[in-house]
Amino acid sequence: MAQSDRSHGVRPPGRRLRRVTGGLVVLVLLAAVASYQFQLGPRWFGFDYPSPVEEPAAVPPPEGLTLPAAEDPAPVAEATPAAEADARAVRRTVRPLLRDRRLGPQVAVAVSQLSDGEVVYRTGEDRVTPASTMKMLTTSAAVTALGSDHRFRTTVVAGTNRRRIVLVGGGDPLLARRPEPIDESYPPRADIQTLARATARALRDVGRSSVRLGYDASLFSGPAVSPDWRPSYVPDNVVSPISALWVDEGRGPNTSERSPDPAEAAAQAFADALERRNIVVVGAPRSEPAPAEAEELAAVQSAPLAEVVQHVLEVSDNEAAEVLFRHVAIAAGLPGSFEAGSAAVVSTLAEVGVDASGDRILDGSGLARGDRLSPETLLSLVGAAAGPDHPTLRPVLAGLPVAGFSGSLAFRFETGPAEGLGAVRAKTGTLTGVHGLAGTVTTDDGVVLGFVAIADRVKVPDTLAARVRIDELAAALAACSCAA
Predict the structure, then answer these.
(1) What's domain 87-147+307-479's architecture?
(2) 258: which of 55, 75, 164, 482 lies 20 to 30 Å off by Cα?
(3) Residue 269 three-state SS
(4) Is 232 a catalytic residue?
């Protein structure tokens, strides 16, 4: 009598085949999911395809699928005409707050309705010390001159024998010392270690394991420290010397202390990163121009300028603002210096209808106490950024801190009407004795206003009280029923 295979503990061949086939199917499915999720196809096998995460519009539809042509959507509501402001209501809201003597003897306030730019309230000085509200002019000129998608490149170039390479600064204001997790840093930053990794790979490809290193920061010219800044600013670590080549804005590793020569420090950081990748750097890095006929070995690039602008405005970054100031000058065909930046910002803003010709602009950050701006210049800029004629300025308005929520206004607006929270978007301006805000506010009944409020002769003991009062002024506008 014949016995079955099961009685001897042997599985039928068909069942074994089914189990093996089933396991292979699971593995293939897992590999497909992993390739889709982590983009392993290009990494492991060298082929490419449109990523549904990064390029969803480029992914072709399944074969045989036909879709009807998209129709223009119907409006969900009729357009609401822009509300106009009642100048008397604005005046009744603002004037009582300006009676506070702690604001000092010199206060300028201006309010306009953004629907047409009409000024509905104005009081105080013709020109004031802008402090960091100056960054609104600098960033506006930068996006106008360069475009919001512009990126700054840091490169490594070499001559024909590749025995000497040169690190070339492209004026990336946010070039970092090391990579940072994308969820911990905004905007994403190019970094020296990534550049060193790509450079080491290019050198090994041609059989080189040692080089001499030069660095070129000649994109910018003139003094690295403004003669209009207080002499204590650099030694007290308020600001770094401005350079077209630096890492972490001239700060040392794990410290806020500024380097006296940011370009040299960046080159040394790059040399150390090459050494860690088994490329011997012979001697110390030295300053030298890049060869005229140099070959580019590697490069990294910054985030788009619109994201850099948002960073500058949100956290009031002095160093990054000064770098953008020089880029405006270079875009205008001028040297990358303080003096040329001043002329270039004025001429560039004129292209978008903002007249700053009567103002005194000495730097890009507002650290210079000799800066003088009229409130009308700032109001005009806010109106241009909010209007339809100059969409390139939109990142400036979108990048302003939001009262009680983001950037330099995250922990402000703790007193005064609660309507100010989220309804005020404004750039802060702060120096010793100077406190101001400039931006937009939406009133309780829907009027969108541009406003500027700056007090520039505040006594030191009144610092916090003056800052709070200016916050309360902006919040009061948000709570106002100011529609005409």
Answers:
(1) 3-Layer(aba) Sandwich (3.40)
(2) 164
(3) helix
(4) no
Rounded-to-integer distance, Cα 87 and Cα 113, Å: 10
Query: How many Cβ atoms sit within 10 Å of the Cβ of residue 421?
Result: 18
Q: At 8, is the secondary structure helix, strand, or coil?
A: helix
> Counting beta carbons within 10 angstroms of the beta carbon of residue 104, is it exposed (0 to 12), middle (13 to 18) or buried (19 or more)?
middle
Residue 21, H or E segment: helix 13-38
Identify the active-site residue in 112, 226, 316, 337: 316
As annotated, the residues of the chain forming the CATH 3.50.80.20 domain(s) are 153-303
Ramachandran region, residue 366 (left: φ > 0; alpha: ψ -120 to 50; beta: rest): left
Neighbours of 160 (CB within 10 A): 9
Q: What is the rounded CA–CA span in Å between residue 149 and residue 228?
A: 32
Q: Residue 176: phi, psi to the nearest 5?
A: -105, 160
What single DSSP character describes residue 57? Answer: G
Q: Is 162 left (phi over 0), alpha (psi -120 to 50) or beta?
A: left
Say if residue 187 is preceded by a cis peptide, omega within 30 of 0. yes
Domain 153-303 listed as CATH 3.50.80.20: yes
pLDDT tens digit at each of 484 positions of the chain: 444 444 444 445 555 545 545 555 555 455 555 554 545 544 444 445 677 777 787 888 788 888 788 888 888 887 777 789 999 999 999 999 999 999 999 999 999 999 999 999 999 999 999 999 999 999 999 999 999 999 999 999 997 777 899 999 999 999 999 998 876 778 999 999 999 999 999 999 988 999 999 999 999 999 999 999 999 999 999 999 999 999 999 999 888 889 999 999 999 999 999 999 999 999 999 999 998 888 999 999 999 999 999 999 999 999 999 999 999 999 999 999 999 999 999 999 999 999 999 999 999 999 999 999 999 999 999 999 999 999 999 999 999 999 999 999 999 999 999 999 999 999 999 999 999 999 999 999 999 999 999 999 999 999 999 999 999 999 999 999 999 8
Tell me how far CA of residue 469 lies from CA of 96, 349, 405, 473, in angstroms.
Answer: 11, 31, 19, 6
Check if the beta carbon of residue 125 is closer than 8 Å to that of residue 108: yes
135 is known as an active-site residue: yes
The CATH 3.40.710.10 domain(s) of the chain lie at: 87-147+307-479
Q: Can you tell me whether residue 258 is helix, strand or coil?
A: strand
Could you give the CA distance from residue 307 to residue 325 in angstroms, rounded to a whole number?
16
Q: Which two tokens stand for residue 381?
A: 């800029």
User: Which of 112, 132, 365, 380 is an active site residue?
Assistant: 132
Asked if 401 and 413 count as a contact pair (C-beta separation under 8 A), the reply is no
Rounded CA-CA distance 52/37 in Å is 9
